[in-house]
Each structure stands twice: as C-alpha cells, then as structure tokens.
Design a protein that fits this description.
By secondary structure, this protein is an all-beta fold. The strands form 12 sheets. A 6-stranded mixed sheet has the order 5-2-10-11-14-13. Strands 22-23-26-25-24-27 form a 6-stranded antiparallel beta barrel. A hairpin with a 7-residue loop joins strand 30 and strand 31 (460-468). The chain is flat and about 120 Å long. The relative contact order is 0.06.
Length: 646
C-alpha cells in the first residue's frame, strides 16, 4: 500500500476547507497482485478525513494502481473516482476526478500536487506531480545530416514558432533514393540506374498483328489489364480458313515450375480452340498438360455451376468424365504452426504445395503437434487463404511445430451438375465420376459414394458409404452442411470409424414430443486457461445448462499446473460448491484426467451439491494456491428438459 499526505482542498472562494473529507472509489473490481493476494471491491469506497488545516489525518493508506490487477496494454487498468466534501458533507466537486497512482508499494504521495496528464472520453486523468512533471524543455532546434539536409543549425524555438529544414543543393539529374543494390540503407542523392525503372510498357493500340510469339514478362511486378467497361479480350488467329485447312486459335500457355528432385523444370497447361476441317465442323476446346509426371487435375475451387451439354451415342455404359470440385479426399499438406483459439476458431499456418485450398464445410484431420495435442484432431473448415487455414477448433494453443493436414470429405461441392444421357431423367447427383447404367440409377465409380442436394451445398444434407482401406473407416455417414459455417458437417456415423465399431452421434441427441416438449442428451466443452491472479478460474461459457441433470463432468490437464505460489491440489465445482463434481486431487501434470461424479454420490446433502441444474452456470476450477500456468479441458455430460410449448 501507499501513504497519502496533505490535501488542502479549496472551496469556491479559493480558501482551504478544514475538517472536510475525501472519498476514493475504484472504477472496477480489482485483485491485489502481490502475495498473498486479495480482492478490492469497486462498490466499497474509502473515506479519509482532513484536519483543521486541511491536511489528511493519518494513517491514510490505499492500494496504488500499480499494485492492482487488471492491467492493460497501455499501462494501468484501474483508476480512482475522487470526490471532496466539506465538514457538513456538501460536495465540493460535482464531477468525480480520475486519479491514478503509479507508485510502488511503500511510497508516500502528496495529493495536493496532483496534475492533469491526459484526457480520455472527456474525463481528465490526474497523476502525482512526481510522475507528470518529469522535466522541462527550454529550447528546440534542428540540425540536418549534411548529406540530404543542411547541417547548419536552425534558429531555436524557445516559446513557440516553426522549425524549417533545408535541403542541400544538388547537381542536375539526381534523385533521392535508396541504394542501387544490396541491403536497405538511408537514401542519398544519386543518378538512376536501370534497376530503378520498370520494364518497358507496350502501347497496345499501336501493336500490329503478331507474326510470332508475343511475350509479356517481368519478374518485379504483376501485369494487370484493366477495363472500364465489359470489353472482350480476344486471342485470335485472323488467318482465313479454307474448306480443307482450319485455323487453330493461338495457344494460351500457363507456365509454372516444379522440382524434379534435382532441378527446377517447367510445368505447362495449354488451352486452345481447335476447329475441325470441312464445312461447319465440330470444334474442340482442349486442355493439355506437360511437365510433372505426378498427375494433373482440373479443379473448380469456388462456387461454380457447370453445364455439360453431352451427347452420348451407342452404349451408355461408358465412363462420362471425371470432375474434381474443390479439394480431393486424401490430399495432404504441411502445417508450420497453430495459433491460440479465438472463440471456436483456430488459425493454422499452412503450405498447400500443389494442392488446392480446402473449402468451407470440408473436414481436415490435423496431426503431428506434440506440445499441445489439442491442436490435433478432426475439424471442419471455416475459411482458408493461400497460406492460412481456419478450423472450428476451440482448443487451439499457439505452437510452432511441423505437422500435417489431410482433407477428408470430398462431398463439399459448391454447385451441382446435371447429366442427361438420352433419357428423360436428370440426375442431380454430386460427386466424382459415375458409370451410368440406366435411366434411374447411377453407380459409384470410386469407393466413396456421396449423394447430396443438387445446387448450393453450403446448406444441404448428405449421406455417404465409406469403405476406405487407408484409414480403416468403413460404414455409413449421415449429416448436413449448414449456412456455410461448417456446423454439423457430420451428424451420425454407423460402422467402424476411428478404430471403434459403434453408432456415433456427433451432436446432442434431441427427442421432441407432440407439444414441443424436449429431452436432450448432450455435452458442452471448453479449454479453461487457469488464472494467474487467484486460486479460482471460471469457464467462459455456461457449461452447466439450465433445466438439466448433470451426469458427469470430466477433465484433462492439457498444460501442466505449476509455478506461481506452487499449487498442489485442485477440484471442480461451481461458484457455490467448489468440489461439487470432483474432490481435491493432486494430478497436476499434462495428460492427467478426472471423472467428476461427486454430484451423483452419497456425499450429496443439499440441492447445491446435487446433480440438478436449475439455471445455467459456469464450471469453476479451484486450486489451493495461485498458479503460474495451467490449462484444463472440461467436458460436461448432461440431460436437459424443456416444457411443452402448447
């Protein structure tokens, strides 16, 4: 604590008011940082009396703001609201003053020397003069570096005025620029070199028909063609065709490079329009590829509609195309780090290599993180960029680690397509490829068979039969993709998944009766990072739902509980009963687990310690000492009931 002295409050007449008082009240509840800690309530003010001379009557001690938590990124996180009264209790200042004491424990502060430092939202913040009055400036001048600006000192400003810097005179044809090569350095006046200039721009309107190849290349900037109207750009072969000699379009080559294992080599996709010979011939738009022998795939990466005007003659048992929409199942990419979860989202830094980005609603399996295994798992995609992947993982913890991601579900197709094969039926099926064998049937060409609503699959149901030898997953999967959020991408799995043969429900099970009454068997979970400012930590969300029976509360220590005042035990409960779910335990290391069933056992003697939950509440973790670190994954299993609606 710090000691306050003096004061000498003045009345409207400017005279010192004797025998008055001062009330000081925190703007927010705070905790005491230094051990053994403590709590300072904002709604309980502190009042000190002045003597007949207007000085504080001792002892007059309070906690400085430096000694209290919260703190913030800008400094101290609390302040005192200060009001002065005369000896009859009349208020001397209609609006409370905002005072901050940045002194450390044991300091003595003269409150008659408080000075205004800054204004926040129209309120003036006052600090002790020893903090605010750090010194004075009597003269300000300017001296240049002698290379760009004149080194002759400017006329100093002692009260108010302007300081003018003067550029040194230079020879003709010099510019102020950084170095011509090498690392960054201070700019100087120098002549331009060729590297300072962009490549020569070509005036398109002056181009004549090209007799040879036209190349636009520059390694230092992107080439962009802008139009102010919906103009058409044509890559045309303007040579006239004859009955026997068609004229093919120019080839559009999309050139990339890949690594052969020993050197860089060219990888090229080519697009060309190839008209046939003769009168009114057929024409073919070709996509050809040369380069890497690792395979080539045409992928539609965003929401597209594909119309296939197919004409099939003869048997209809032939394979009709292979289309890959979005990411393929089994594509694996590299992950370099994970960030802390924000709500239910975790951002991963990724390198997709030659694979396309996963799309919203697809599922990705993350594996390889060691220090924080909550970064691993099976998660739905919320969004992606060329270097980041945002997944629905509320347990993400910042970590740099070589890991991998594998795309699981190929069924997320942004738009469907129709196949008409000389029949009256149109198949609004989505997937990879199909071998049609009749007007009302489509057989899967690959082991995974996905059927989902034609059209925008950001809001649709699906089912698929999985027989995947690489993962060992076999069975029926039923679910839905809701509003493009990735919510409930899988609802029910029947068969053998993740090494377990069972019927798995990945969302709460709800039984709804005729009059709207419901019975829900569900769970809620949260990764709770332990407070380092006290012995108790509450969950952010209300993990204990209203109108429910709490069957069990299970937990796993994900970050070892240690440091601080060296805790040795912990228990789980709520704000009323510390050990409602689990009694005092000593398992503090990462990987330790607890199954909390106290609320269901014979020790229950009151409603507060039992399994029933009338109103929603948070789970509280209580330690015997304040920790320096620690995190616990807590999951609540419950049965919840609601009354009829009619």
């Amino acid at each position: 604590m710090i000691t306050l002295i003096n004061g000498f409050p003045q009345g409207p007449n400017g005279l010192i008011v004797p025998l008055g008082s001062i009330k000081m009240q925190l703007n927010a509840d705070a905790t005491i940082i230094a051990g053994p800690g403590g709590f300072v309530a904002a709604d309980i003010p502190v009042v000190f009396q002045f003597d007949k001379n207007g000085a504080l009557i001792q002892p007059a001690k309070i906690w400085s703001n430096e000694e209290l938590d919260p703190q913030n990124a800008l400094g101290l996180g609390t302040y005192y609201l200060v009001t002065f009264y005369d000896q009859n209790g009349a208020i001397l200042n209609n609006t409370p003053l905002w005072w901050i004491f940045p002194e450390t424990i044991g300091a003595t502060v003269d409150i008659s020397q408080m000075v205004a430092i800054s204004t926040v939202g129209g309120n003036v913040i006052y600090y002790p003069r020893s903090i605010g009055n750090a010194g004075t400036v009597t003269s300000v001048g300017f001296v240049g570096d002698g290379t760009v600006l004149s080194s002759t000192p400017s006329t100093p400003v002692t009260t108010s005025g302007n300081i003018t810097a003067t550029l040194l005179t230079q020879s003709a044809n010099l510019v102020l620029a950084g170095p011509t090569t090498g690392s960054a350095a201070n700019p100087t006046f120098r002549a331009l070199v060729s590297a300072d200039l962009p490549a020569l721009s070509i005036v398109w309107s002056s181009l004549q028909p090209a007799a040879g190849n036209l190349t636009l290349a520059n390694t230092t900037y992107n080439t962009t063609f802008n139009q102010t109207t919906a103009a058409a750009w044509s890559w045309a072969n303007i040579t006239a065709a004859t009955n026997s000699t068609p004229q093919l379009s120019p080839t559009l080559n999309l050139n990339g490079t890949y690594w052969t294992g020993s050197a860089s080599a060219a990888d090229i996709w080519s697009i060309q329009n190839i008209p046939g010979a003769g009168t009114n011939p057929a024409t073919v738009l070709t996509f050809s590829h040369s380069g890497t022998p690792g395979g080539a795939t045409v992928s539609f990466l965003s929401q597209v509609a594909v119309s296939l005007g197919l004409t099939v003659s003869g048997t209809v048992n032939g394979q009709v195309g292979v289309f890959h929409f979005n990411q393929q199942s089994g594509d694996t990419f590299n992950i370099s780090s994970a960030g802390n979860a924000s709500g239910n989202l975790t951002i991963y830094q990724v390198n997709y290599g030659s694979n396309p980005q996963p799309s919203v609603g697809q599922n990705v399996t993350v594996a390889g993180f060691i220090a924080h295994t909550s970064n691993n798992g099976y998660f739905a995609v919320a969004s992606s960029t060329s270097s980041t992947l945002t997944l629905y993982n509320s347990g993400g913890i910042a970590e740099t680690q070589a890991a991998t991601g594998t795309v699981d579900n190929p069924y997320t197709i942004q738009s469907g397509f129709d196949i008409v094969l000389g029949y009256t039926n149109t198949y609004g099926l989505q997937g990879h490829s199909y071998v049609p064998s009749g007007g009302g049937e489509a057989l899967p060409f690959v082991p995974v068979w996905t059927i989902s609503a034609k059209g925008d699959a950001q809001d649709s149901g699906y089912f698929r039969i999985i027989n995947d030898g690489s993962t060992g997953n076999h069975g029926l999967e039923i679910g839905g993709i809701i509003d493009g959020t990735g919510a409930a991408p899988v609802t029910v799995q029947i068969g053998h998944f993740g090494g377990i043969s069972a019927v798995a429900f990945n969302t709460p099970i709800t039984q709804t009766q005729a009059h709207g009454e419901t019975y829900v068997y569900g769970s809620s979970t949260e990764l709770i990072t332990l407070s380092t400012g006290g012995t108790t930590t509450d969950s952010v969300g209300n993990l204990l739902p209203a109108g429910a029976i709490i069957d069990a509360v299970v937990a796993r220590v994900t970050t070892t509980i240690s440091g601080g005042s060296t805790p040795t035990t912990w228990e789980m409960g709520d704000a009323t009963t510390a050990a409602r779910f689990s009694s005092t335990g000593t398992a503090l290391t990462a990987g330790s687990t607890v199954v909390g069933l106290n609320q269901m056992q014979g020790v229950v003697s009151t409603t507060a310690t039992g399994p029933t939950q009338a109103v929603a509440a948070k789970v509280r973790i209580t330690l015997d000492q304040t920790p320096g670190q620690g995190a616990v994954r807590v999951t609540v299993f419950y049965r919840q009931f609601t009354a009829p609606t009619s």
